[in-house]
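Appendix B, Record 12. Input sequence as logged:
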Amino acid sequence: VTAVSQATAVIPPTNTPTPAQNTYLPFVNDTAPTLTPIPTITPIPTPAFPTYTGQPLAREEMGIQIHIHREDMSAIFSHLQTLGIGWVKVQVSWKLYQPAPDQYADDRFGELDQLVHQANANGIAVLLSVSKAPEWSRPTTELDGPPTDFSLYTDFMQYLAARYQDNVAAYELWNEPNLQREWNGMPLSAADLVALLRAGAQGVRAAAPTAVLISAAPATTGINDGIVAIDDRQYLRQMVEAGITDVVDALGVHPYGWGNAPDNSVSAPDTAVPSHNNHPSFFFY
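Logged structural output:
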């Protein structure tokens, strides 16, 4: 019997290589970088304004119009005192203050109350300009305009006058009625405006008889088509013919000359701005 012996080959294990060690060399900064110096900022000099050397302007004859909506009244009146003015004008958009026949907007009136109070505390007279009838009082609403029933203006003006009594010194009845965008819903008419203002004046006189009443100031237009606008001077003459002087204490005007320098005139349009230079209404003289 022959014995067969099977040999088993043994493979020696592979040696696990030793991980390479990182060698860190010290950083040698042979040459330090040169820092660029910060340039010196030359302050811009405060521009010099000419000093007024004439007679001091009478405080009670100077005023400014402001718009209020969630304003800081203390800051506003701080600025007004700095200006040294005696009047402040605020436009009261009727439609925002009476959104429904038997509803008054508390938030709007609350802010207006605060303004009137602050003005009186600071010795500044208040002028309220009241226009823009509510949508519920008008047949059309795409543009602002008067109410269909003018007696509604009587009621609202009486409400205002009763609310503020002697704390509001003056009221301007309506605004720029010679423009379609302020008198939409009926044809432009100075006679109709005087009728509306007569109704509004009745309301004020019933509650604050000593308040000064000012007629709506026509806008300077340069247009006289009778549809979009009526020339302000012509419209004002028509107001006088319709009896406006029997209704109010003063006539309102808007002598806009902002489009041209005070020493320019319509006779020299080449020195005027590119627009608003073709009609005397756009110049100071």
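The first strand starts at residue 63 and ends at 66.
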